[in-house]
């Protein structure tokens, strides 16, 4: 990188093309520079006509950072499907930087870089040199500021910074991330834009709370989500030579209507917002399609800041249910939140592996496994489909704690799930409150109402996980006390005679006989429980 920068400062056309193409190629724009009589001519060619204002500002500030030695700069914007340039911007170099001397001169298109292709450093050669190293690598923010225009709070207002970041400008993205992480200290940040996926590498030796950190940063990054930045990856490493591991991967752009992907923290934006101005400021330099969001599993607690989400205030419950049936994690998340609204102090994580929905409940409080899974399982039948055929309920106490499976069940049995249920179920009233999370939902055989109404179990080991303790029979306790007293009297009567007969050797024999009983007390515990409870 430093060698290319030094060559660019000396006016090397291939180096200049490499630096500019490093970020512009991701947006479908190719840079072809040529030089003629101390005039640097740069052709910006894209699948659509490049935006004159943003690209002119970007290139001039970038070349000013490099320290270009040419007296004159001419920028040409051209659509690849057109034969002539759509716009021309001319700048004159001066002590304070580049000054525009002609805002637009399309009639001079014939004098552009294509007309000077006979020069030794042709646009084609410069483009080949630039695209040969087209795969971008993570660049430190401090280094990236040399390649791209430096945008900070001193020379760029927040709205302009956000719009520039939406266009995929790494310099603006860098400043945006720095502002978001201003409360964290001792962080080195590296950013990279691979097509439409923004990769952020955090280099630090301090501990980072992954869910909280990624949730906070992911929520802020939604402000710059666009067709140029559709997904984000959060990585962390301890040093330059250390291996980076991915903390989280998420989709932050969901197409032309991001109003459905706003978190609950922003209730002012409606979930069905389709206003083009409120949706995005579409940049003509980007044409990347938004990827599907159903293939990336995300924990629900953090996903509310990053993934598609509809809050509990959404009036259209039917639309939410239909969206959840398609496998949309944001809709599933909201659906589960509504189903568990009666429980407190729960952190919920969801993941969709193929057609199996995995729900992890993180809490330190006691959960009645059968009642909890029965209630939630019954609710989940409403979103059962070919996209969600089975469900697993897991529980853990903390982020680092091991999760154990409480129950695994199948909730979809074909095209008509109602046909597979042995017992008819009464129609649920729309205004009926959610069932109380209590053991009264259990039937005498220990199954929940959902289990008895067709919620087929696939893992009976959940019954063993139930913490229900057997009741002690008072009659058995009295009998055990009588037996213990009789046994003690017998020992007290036998012990003196045993000692007189065997002497000191008898003591050792007695200890040798008692030691295994004391040591293997767990072996006798089931027998004691059997005596006291009959189970």
UniProtKB/TrEMBL annotation:
Task: Quote the biased-composition stretches of kind Polar residues, using this chain's numbering.
Answer: 118-138, 258-275, 442-451
State if Transmembrane helix is listed as a keyword. yes
Ranges where the record places region Disordered = 102-138, 254-313, 414-469
Q: Which UniProt keywords apply?
A: Membrane, Transmembrane, Transmembrane helix
Could you tell me where the Low complexity compositional bias lies? 280-299, 427-441
Spans traversing the lipid bilayer: 477-495, 502-521
UniProt-recorded name of the protein: Uncharacterized protein
């Amino acid at each position: 990188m430093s060698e290319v920068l030094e060559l660019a400062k000396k006016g090397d056309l291939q180096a200049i093309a490499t630096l500019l193409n490093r970020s512009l190629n991701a947006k479908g724009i190719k840079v072809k520079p040529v030089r003629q009589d101390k005039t640097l001519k740069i052709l910006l060619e894209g699948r659509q006509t490049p935006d004159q204002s943003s690209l002119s500002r970007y290139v001039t500030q970038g070349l000013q950072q490099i320290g270009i030695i040419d007296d004159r700069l001419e920028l040409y914007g051209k659509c690849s499907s057109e034969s002539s340039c759509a716009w021309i911007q001319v700048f004159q170099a001066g002590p304070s930087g580049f000054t525009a001397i002609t805002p637009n001169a399309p009639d001079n298109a014939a004098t552009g870089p294509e007309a000077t292709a006979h020069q030794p450093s042709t646009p084609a050669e410069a483009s080949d040199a630039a695209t040969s190293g087209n795969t971008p690598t993570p660049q430190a923010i401090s280094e990236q500021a040399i390649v791209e225009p430096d945008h900070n709070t001193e020379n760029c207002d927040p709205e302009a910074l956000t719009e520039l970041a939406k266009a995929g400008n790494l310099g603006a993205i860098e400043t945006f991330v720095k502002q978001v992480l201003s409360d964290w200290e001792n962080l080195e940040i590296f950013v990279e834009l691979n097509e439409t996926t923004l990769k952020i590498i955090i280099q630090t030796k301090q501990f980072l709370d992954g869910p909280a950190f990624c949730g906070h940063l992911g929520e802020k990054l939604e402000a710059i989500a666009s067709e140029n930045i559709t997904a984000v990856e959060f990585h962390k490493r301890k040093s330059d030579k250390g291996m980076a591991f991915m903390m989280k991967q998420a989709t932050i752009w969901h197409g032309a209507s991001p109003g459905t992907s706003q978190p609950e923290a922003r209730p002012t934006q409606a979930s069905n917002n389709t206003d083009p101005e409120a949706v995005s400021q579409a940049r003509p330099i980007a044409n990347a399609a938004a990827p599907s969001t159903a293939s990336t599993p995300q924990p629900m607690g953090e996903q509310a800041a990053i993934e598609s989400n509809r809050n509990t205030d959404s009036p259209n419950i039917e639309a939410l249910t239909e969206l959840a049936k398609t496998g949309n994690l944001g809709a599933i998340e909201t659906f589960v939140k509504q189903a568990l609204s009666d429980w407190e102090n729960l952190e919920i994580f969801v993941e969709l592996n193929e057609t199996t929905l995995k729900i992890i409940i993180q809490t330190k409080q006691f959960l009645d496994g059968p009642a909890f899974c029965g209630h939630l399982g019954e609710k989940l039948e409403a979103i059962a489909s070919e996209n969600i055929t089975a469900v697993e309920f897991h529980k853990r106490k903390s982020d680092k704690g091991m999760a154990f499976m409480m129950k695994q069940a199948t909730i979809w049995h074909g095209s008509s799930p109602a046909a597979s249920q042995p017992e008819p179920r009464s129609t649920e009233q729309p205004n009926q409150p959610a069932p109380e999370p209590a053991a009264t939902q259990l039937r005498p055989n220990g199954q929940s109402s959902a289990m008895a109404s067709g919620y087929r179990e696939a893992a009976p080991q959940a019954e063993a996980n139930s913490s229900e303790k057997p009741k002690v029979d008072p009659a058995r306790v009295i009998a055990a006390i009588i037996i213990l007293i009789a046994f003690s009297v017998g020992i007290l009567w036998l012990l003196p005679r045993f000692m007189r007969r065997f002497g000191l050797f008898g003591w050792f024999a007695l200890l040798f006989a008692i030691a295994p009983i004391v040591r293997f007390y767990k072996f006798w515990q089931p027998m004691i429980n059997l005596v006291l409870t009959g189970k």
